[in-house]
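=== RUN LOG ===
request id: a7f3
mode: sequence -> structure
chains: 1
length: 314
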Amino acid sequence: MADYKAIKGHNIETVAGDPSVLQVGDIWYSNTTRKIRGAKLGAGAWSSGTAMGTARYFNAAAGTQTSGLVAAGYSNQTAAVTLNSEEWNGSAWAEGNNINTSGVYLYNSFGTQTAAVVAGRSEPAPTVCEEYNGTSWTEVTGTDTGRYQSGGSGTLTAGLVWGGAPALQLVETYDGTNWTEVNDLNTGRQNVSGCGTQTATLCIAGYPAKALVEEYNGTSWTEIADLNANTYGAGSFGDTANAVICGNSPTSTKTEQWNGTSWTEVNDMSTPRAQSNSHGGTYAAGMVVGGGPPSITTVEEWDISAAASSFTSS
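=== RESULT ===
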């Protein structure tokens, strides 16, 4: 078996305390504690972000914590569907071109700020699919099955949608041109959350309120560990190994974290919300935008910094 030096090319560093900058995976010997220590992901925390220009819930969203997109949704302030879209550059929101086709319950979206997909919406156009290229929205091939309040993950050329009203089990993949039906969820549901890629996705909770979680491996869905509480209409981001779900219906600040094995309740958001959406983000750096009812402009950012801990060999 290779030793540490053979793998890393150097011996474990000796540090007085801990290094000033921690990077996940670092290992060192602390001559203060006289223990081998390492850096791992610590506890996550929420902080207030810059508010959007338009209050909304049931909105679509895509991108990351530093390069995001939000589109459409419902506004209590105007008692109407908004077609407005906004782009996020990590510090400010800028209004972009409107989405083309109305629908209250969009919610299903995936991709990046410059290559996003919104698939399905409520009547009268439940199969409509639009793509965003960083400037404008264009209607493209619609989903095979009309759906809204469904889940979405992946990229513009390798996307996945699942579930949706009315309590659908149906799942479809998208290759940037066409939709293809693949294996169903085990349990149909709507107002669902989830995150991941086309071949590795979590389907989380859903209406009627569930704690049920399923994982997709590119071929089939398998039920895994439940959430700690029933929920629907929540935001989510991450991947199948590490994920976060936040909010609830009715509005809640509750947040749970997935470590690949189990869910743990962690630090709450500041603002209660439901029917929000989240930028794709990562487990360590995510973002949740809008929510309601009533519709809000509030944004919160989730961050996990590296933390030092001691460990012993067995």
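=== NOTES ===
The chain has two domains: 4-41, 45-303.
The chain has a mean pLDDT of 89.
=== END ===
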